[in-house]
Amino acid sequence: MLEVLNHPLITHKLTQMRSKDTGTKDFRENLDEIAELMAYEVCRDLPTQPVDVETPIGPCVGYELSKEVVIVPILRAGIGLLDGIRRLVPTAKVGFIGMYRDEKTLEPHEYFAKFPKDLDKSVVMIVDPMLATGGSAVAAIDAVKKRGANNIKLVCLVGVPEGVRAVQKAHPDVDIYLAAMDEKLNENGYIVPGLGDAGDRIFGTK
Ligand code: PRP
Ligand code: URA
């Protein structure tokens, strides 16, 4: 399943992020706000279970989340989406996977992985602003599946058809959520028009 979350607020904030004149502070704040807006939609089908509660007036059957949510940001840039999602799902656990793309081959390289227990019983949200070749996302999904995850969502800000196809081919069971589907990759593997290097813009590096 692929869902592009076209929403005026998301598009407005993403447009500010795309501008080369937007500095680190505004870039980060817009990303954080988009993450929260996306989380609302991404969580729409989280499983719930009935629970008895007593209101001040009397008994009532309510519903509570029945599965743990585990957010897995792909380091570094995925960290920019973490707080916004956690504001909506404050009980979420957090796993980390460190991945960098070789600038020449565009192959992903894993350099760190730390996950909470019981991924097999959790909804696992892998988050990263950019879905370019899809190599990093496919490798991150491989890593959580190796540890038992079987209910996985991939949440990215900007994707391209190549990256979406790569993930759908390798992991057809994973739901993909984007804020925008851009046109293509350039010869250096950057998304066009995209927003540049997300990690560098979030953390002020270059
Ligand atoms: C960027 C981005 C993704 C990856 C996407 O990370 O945040 O993780 O590239 O590209 P792909 O779909 O072709 O794999 P980068 O490797 O630049 O690392 P960083 O987050 O540390 O900047
Ligand atoms: N990673 C980024 O940060 N930006 C792109 O356009 C592609 C990969």
Question: Summary?
Answer:
Helices cover 33% and strands 33% of the residues. The chain has 206 residues and is of the alpha/beta class.
The shape, in one word, is globular
Low-confidence stretches: none
CATH topology: Rossmann fold
| Strand coverage percent | 25-35%
Give me the count of strands: 13
Instruction: Just give the CATH class.
Output: Alpha Beta
The biggest beta sheet reads: 9 strands, mixed
The helix/strand series, from N terminus to C terminus, equals EHHEEEHEEEEHEHEEEEH
Distance between the termini: 35 Å
Tally the structural domains: 1
Molecular structure report:
This protein is α/β, with parallel strands linked by helices. It has a single domain (2-44, 67-203), classed as Rossmann fold (3-Layer(aba) Sandwich), CATH 3.40.50. It is 33% helix and 33% strand. The chain has helices spanning 8-18, 24-42, 79-88, 135-146, 161-170, 198-203, and strands at 2-4, 48-54, 59-65, 68-75, 93-94, 96-101, 108-114, 122-131, 152-159, 175-178, 180-181, 184-185, 191-192. The strands form three sheets. Strands 1, 4, 5, 6, 7, 8, 9, 10 and 11 form a nine-stranded mixed β-sheet that branches. α5 links the parallel β9 (152-159) and β10 (175-178). The radius of gyration is 17 Å and the shape is globular. The chain starts with a strand and ends with a helix. The site of 1-O-pyrophosphono-5-O-phosphono-alpha-D-ribofuranose has 23 residues, from β6, β8, α4 and α6.
